[in-house]
Amino acid sequence: MTDFTVGxxxxxxxxxxxxLLSGALHYFRVHEEQWEHRLSMLAAMGLNCVETYVPWNLHxxxxxxxxxxAALGRFLDAVGRAGLLAIVRPGPYICAEWENGGxxxxxxxxxxxxxxxxxxxxxxxxxxxxxxxxxxxVRRQVDRGGPVVMVQAENEYxxxxxxxxxxxxxxxxxxxxxxxxxxxxxxxxxxxxxxxGSVPGLLATANFGSGAREGFGVLRRHRPGGPLMCMExxxxxxxxxxxEPVVRDAAGAADALREILGCGASVNLYMAHGGxxxxxxxxxxxxxxLQDGELRPTVTSYDYDAPIxxxxxxxxxxxxxxxxxxxxxxxxxxxxxxxxxxxxxPVRAELGAWAPLGDVLEALGDPEPPESGVAPTFEELGVDxxxxxxxxxxxxPRVPYPLEVRGLRDRAVVYVDGVRAGVxxxxxxxxxxxxxxxxxxxxxxxxxxxxxxxxxxxxxxxVTGGVLHERQYLHGxxxxxxxxxxxxxxxxxxxxxxxxxxxxxxGGPAGLYRGVFTVGGGARADxxxxxxxxxxxxxxxxxxxxxxxxxxxxxxxxxxxPGPVLREGVNEVWVLELEGAGGPYVxxxxxxxxxxxxxxxxxx
Length: 604
Description:
By secondary structure, the protein is α+β, with helices and mostly antiparallel strands. Strand 9, helix 9 and strand 10 form a beta-alpha-beta unit. It is globular and about 80 Å long.
């Protein structure tokens, strides 16, 4: 056991000066059986610490319904075995390009604009969560023999609000929960962010991707003393569906890292290894300088152009960072672990079984609530990730009029009298062809990911306004949710009434597809890459494990399949296609190639 302290000019571990060379690796974005390998990669790069967020919504998806909170503890134990220190950022808000910034839907749906403030009911929910979570951290603090050296209070709060009462209460709660290691805050290096997000007596750190001297200069205006740390050195970036790929020059990123260390500062690489947004947990952003414009959903891959790619392999950036970090190591850097191996032989999985969305909803959907006057939102239905089917009648007789969905979030496939009539979005929410009455309208509405940053945090999903026929609202709405969580019950999925895929040109219709593929014997694959040629948009499961969303809009074309998910012999795959299928088949191969410029091998 030893102490970790924040001195006037440096961190001290056991009384000796120490520089934190940390890398972000989120336990919830990496399959648990692969934690050890990824942590050993961090050590081989020259890092002595790992940082992780904690997503509240993953662990308490429904009020009081806690799920595998101990996963954080298991990860921290793995960190300790790897000989690394740990920084924990429990939120309650984390951003992280994660659904709703980590806040549960039942929290933002219930408290709305009162979240992340001193509101008593919101604080009560946070305290209950932290009382459940923090024992996983407290018993693993460095002064108790564990790896945890620091804990963050909130996250980039200065980019959102200015409620100092809330921040000080939260810091006090962490102390009351038993946190004895130093607390800190992190914000952008701008005056309004640091004044809004800092707490007196807590270490303030800065987040940026370049310009370390300027950034630390701003921080020093607010905190003349104490160690400098870039808590998020953005060495890459994330991607959005329908946008161009994002890549940061490796040499430029290495120069920016060298500048941080040249300032005498500690650093946390964001991300050292990004991983994957499994299970449809990817968040979204809003465009524009005020984050108030068009929705931009985040892709399933969280590769982040990090030095360790999504598949756990070293990239060119890894080799350059290792050279920058090596002079700061206390001794020779450890060698790299064996590079993960992809699936040896490509496999095609024919998806010969199919069920229409309506039958899937009957088997896996939530109970249908009574008809309501207006369309309930996802939040009112208790749906976080997945779909809601809305049904409403157009009275008649009446001549054809435009049909519009006001406040649509985010995308709806519309059927009129059972015939597909079009796809609507928030920006294009009027059907191309007018609708006459009487008619039955069915809308399958999907959330593409909740905003994780900015003033639109916590905005509701679904039909948030209403369905209009000409200028008249249509009332008498029947709504039923199909949550992604429902697919975790393999027996329930097996009970779906599958039949043969309908024949016809142009691929298959929307629905749930099922098929099998065989993985041969020999060396176990550490990963595979799954591609869906000709498919449009939906979700994929392999052996009941949800790989996440696919979308022909790109730029992501291959979904990462963790090796531990695969079985030797027969494997099952499900595809929930929401617009229109290809083959129907999917292909599994060794995965995406290492990013251009990666070394053939990094010398240890």
